[in-house]
Amino acid sequence: MSLANSKALKAMAAGAAAIASLAIGGAAMAQAVIIRSTGPSAAQYPQGRKLPANATVTLKSGDRVTVLDKSGTRVLSGPGSFAMNGKVNRDGEGTSLASAILSSGSSRRTRTGAVRGAPVEQAPPGPGSVWYIDVSKGGTYCVADPSKLVLWRPNRTEEATATLTAADGTVADLVWKRGNALKLWPAATLPVVDGQTYTFSDPVGPAVKITTRLLGPLPPDPMEVAAKMGELGCNAQLDVMANAAAPAGSGGM
């Protein structure tokens, strides 16, 4: 065998080994996703950041980071260092709540009506589903199923009339009955468009901007959905996941 052929074979073997190494490494690179971050290190561990398997999160005093991985959720409080290896005690019921709210949110039956004269229950502090748009805050929202997109209001004690306006000026009226927090998106008037920004206005608070991002078919892994939400800037929905994952007595923060 000539020297040139020998060098060529060695180069091919090295290339094949490198490709195999990348494939093995890629398969092992399961990730975790930060769904909430507060405290001095929040800029280092921003909401939506993906962490490689076995990464170490180092926190300072006052830091509090909520992480979702394939094993569930963790709430990390500083100071300290925490390995993302899945070999830790989880947060009780919070372990399954984020997964449950993701898997059922887009397909659950939504009750948008109200019974006149029925007692009004105390309003929850936030939306009960990742897939509800909080009209009091606005922001960017990822949409799994446009036909079942729901608007949520925190104050449901009175009847309310609001408007939703598209970028081209098309307006849809929204009327909430007393005791009702939910309203289906008026898709017949305002189709849900990827990247479109709408303006929500009502007499109670300031107008807010709502931007919709269409996800298409959801991955089966809630962590992948959360990572996509982070990439698209759907941080309000990550907050809902973090609230669901918070153990009792933590205050969800």
Kindly report the spatial arrangement of strands forming the biggest sheet. Answer: 8-14-13-10-11
Number of β-strand runs: 14
- Binned, the helix content reads 10-25%
Radius of gyration, whole Å: 23 Å
* Tally of contiguous helical segments: 4
Main beta-sheet annotation: 5 strands, mixed
Structural class: alpha+beta
* Structural shape: elongated
**Unreliable segments (pLDDT under 50, ≥5 consecutive)?**
1-30, 89-95, 104-122, 248-253
Q: Write the element-wise H/E pattern from the N-terminal end onward.
A: HEEEEEEHEEEEEEEEHH
Query: How much strand?
Result: 25-35%
How far is the first residue's CA from the last residue's CA?
68 Å
Architecture overview:
This protein is α+β, with helices and mostly antiparallel strands. The protein starts with a helix and ends in an 8-residue tail after the last helix. α2 packs across α4. The chain has helices at residues 3-28, 94-105, 222-232, 235-245; strands at 31-38, 50-52, 56-59, 64-69, 72-77, 80-83, 132-134, 139-143, 150-152, 160-165, 171-176, 182-184, 197-201, 208-214. It has a 5-stranded mixed β-sheet. A 4-stranded antiparallel β-sheet has the order 2-1-4-5.
Short précis:
By secondary structure, the chain is an alpha+beta fold.
